[in-house]
Amino acid sequence: MKLFVGLGNPGAKYARNRHNIGFMAVERIAEDHGFAPWRAKFQGQISEGRLGSEKVLLLKPETFMNLSGQSVGEAMRFHKLDPADVVVFHDELDLAPGKCRLKTGGGHAGHNGLRSIHQHIGAEYDRVRLGIGHPGHKDRVAGYVLADFAKVEQDWLDDLMRGISDGAPALAGGDGPKFMNAVALRVAPPRSSTTTPKAAKPAKVEAEPEAVDNRSPLQKLADKFK
Fold it and tell me: How far is residue 69's CA from residue 54's CA, in Å, rounded to a whole number?
């Protein structure tokens, strides 16, 4: 079994926050892949289903972001899972909006949700880092992550969610490159080879200057009867 954890804060107030992009990712997977209805368990909301040949448990901790590890640790212990069975989807300030990176292990980079998970299960779990960009100054970070995505961000956000859902079976099966390729095909699709190139502008033709006739009127008349 795999445990896919989306990080965020519970409640309608936070539902569209940048900090809740992890919740959005697992919700999209559940919707697109026919998972069971969400229900309360492990201090959070869970949904069960299959991705390819893998049984997968989706988890949205409801302990608020700073205590996410309590919920994750409880689910792991109940199902006797190892950190290697866990994939955490979370917002990433250090990636440009719409970028996605897959990482195993490492530090928490100041992310309170990851910090809590580190404390409960260690660092050797997989993370799907979902770029939301940086507001430019550390004093603005809290307000930025707890603000809703802007309308102009909806297109790339939807593309990213579609890509994550497309690649979810590969991720569950341990094929990271295939997962990343599925995301890339949604976020930055290749240009069509059938696109008709623009017609080249015709070269400008310069008119030849008319020849100057220096003959006298008498010569012109004589030449006419030759």
Answer: 24
Q: Are strands 126-131 and 86-92 parallel, antiparallel or unpaired?
A: parallel
Q: For the residues 150-172, what does the mean pLDDT come to?
A: 97
Whole-number Å distance between alpha carbons of 180 and 75 = 26
CB under 8 A, 24+ apart: contacts of 41-50: 41/75, 42/71, 42/74, 42/75, 42/78, 43/70, 43/71, 43/74, 44/71, 44/75, 46/75
Residue 19: active-site member: yes
List helix spans (H) across the chain: 21-32, 68-79, 112-121, 141-145, 154-172, 176-187, 217-224
Out of 19, 33, 90, 111, the active site residue is 19
Question: Which candidate, 203, 175, 222, places its Cα nearest to that of 54?
Answer: 175
Rounded Cα distance, 143 and 158, in Å:
23
- Residue identified by tokens 């949904």 is 47
Cβ neighbours around 111 below 10 Å, total: 24
Angle at 4 between CA 149 and CA 126, to 5 degrees: 90
Give the pLDDT band of residue 206 (cuts 50, 70, 90).
Answer: very low
